[in-house]
Predict the 3D structure of the following.
Amino acid sequence: MSPEEQRSHAAEVEQTLREIGRADLVVGIPSYNNARTIGHVVRAVMAGLAKYFSDQAAVIVNSDGGSKDGTPEVVRQAALGDYRTVLATHPLRPIHRLTTPYHGVPGKGSALRLVFEIAVRLQARACAVVDADLRSITPEWMDLLLSPILREGFDFVAPLYRRHKYDGTITNSIVYPLTRALYGKRVRQPIGGDFGFSGRLAAHYLAQDVWHTDVARFGIDIWMTTTAITGGFRICQAFLGAKIHDAKDPGVDLSGMLMQVVGSVLDLMESNYPIWSKVQGSEPVPVFGLEYEVGLEPIRVNVARMLGIFRLGAEELGDLWQKILSPATFRAVQHIAGSPDADFRFPPDVWVSVIYDFALAFHRRVIHRDHLLQALVPLYLGRTASFVLETPESTADEVEAVIEELCLQFERQKPDLVARWEGQG
Amino acid sequence: MFEALRTVVVGTFQRFGERALAFLPNVLAMLILILAGWAIAAIIRSLLGRALRALRFDRWCEEMGITQVLRRAEIRHAPSHLLTRALFWLVLLVFLVVGLHSLEIALVNRALAAIFGYIPRILAAVLILLGGFLLANFLARAVLLAAVNAHLASARLLAGGVRVLIVAIALAMALEQLALAAHIVIAAFSIFFGGVTLALAIAFGLAGRDLARDVLRRQFAPQREEAPDELSHL
């Protein structure tokens, strides 16, 4: 888009916002080349708003990262058609739709920043953001993400999904246990991607100066959750059912994702030390929505490749790991790498030590931070391979018990982390 | 006749004595300057040593890979020790040059002017080498990490190749900066890399046909045969 077109588009958006004036609800859909799925997402959001909030003024904001596949056109054309075929009642107020490109660092964070700006500008009472690649979104998601804010006074609604036991492994092995141990709140999907939040919290988000960091990219989800917790906002979870999304972008590699997400978690540890160092144990977070089992398609996992990368890392990155890990943890990791495939296990206590050692190395800037996070990839794959080998026949509940045990291990070893962070070890 | 000879000889000795007496203050000035330079250099060495210890300079060098490079070159001293020593000798050299200049000997002055003119080139060459080593280590580590995470068995070889390439370029630039037979350096550099590339091509294509086939098969065939992960990490 040329600068002239950008100016013209900005003026158009400004005109639309002036015409809308105020809105009760704002729903953001960040997108980038999601033409295949975004039509369904927009229709589900429209149906949800019409069904559950027919008396509220609502705006759907599609914040696009410059899609080349016609995503904005799909958003503009998406319609419910005859409302009577979808809904029992006709919406009382029209649902406005805005599709606009965002500016700044390319990524989901910059896209959501624009949603926050529009929410604050329209003085929205409640907002929700949903990913544009969702295949499993239903109109009920709007009720589940927005009602706790409008009717129960919560400020932040985190999603709760039924996922395949091997889906979301960064969440299960690092982000959830670490966030829970640090901040004491059991938010099961802290980087779920689909959230509800109050207008007050949107203004708080907007006031933070983080938009040139990894928060502007994949780091936005964990940043939103952590900021809501540390800001003292009322948080809850909403059970949304299954999370099924479009096939992942092959251009997005594991290293990049891990660097941005884990980098954001560790960055947040720096600024929130006065808060998390005082937290002990953890407490449950209220859940809205009826929890039920869903059928999930099996996932193909290449354990041999994961083990190969882990062992290659142990062989080639020994010097680097030695700088990051404590001597005992380094010895334990080398011992694990030497074990045969059949007996391969990465015990939870060693994994927690690895994560805490990396957090400390990040804090002390032992090596360049990008290199540090890249050095974690083989270890993460080793732990993931072990998790898969440990739970081949396990049910969802049994896997959840394994994750719960890992979380408790993170909480048990936290006092040692606090002591070492302060330079006592 | 004898009287005339005596006058000439005595006159010569007198003039020598006068000149020697006139020159003596210059020599004394030179000695004072060198002694003062030694004292100042020692003070600077001590202060810099303390500052580097406070800044944990040796640890930073360890992190940046400078210490490893020195160890490979069989230099066992700590980088802070080397830096303080280098600065000590540099300061002493400056005072030595100024001291020699005070002798006011035309030949010495010309030589000193040439040395002074060359010092910026030496400093530039040292900076280029230092920057080259830092960049080489940083990029080699980045390549090593990327290659391991991409499951490339030849990760260390790739990282080593990047390090050698950057150090060689830095070395060639430093030598060019020193104006040491620039044409020969460039020619040697070209011949070296041309030779390495040719040797690799011949080794890979002829002597290592089987190995090349295996490497290519390992590199490309598994990607077709192996089922990709369907794991969503986030």
Observations:
- The mean pLDDT of chain B is 82.
- The radius of gyration of chain B is 30 Å.
- Chain B touches chain A at residues 63, 138, 141-142, 144-146, 148-149, 151, 153, 155-156, 226-234 (CB under 8 Å).
- Residues 19-104 of chain B form one domain.
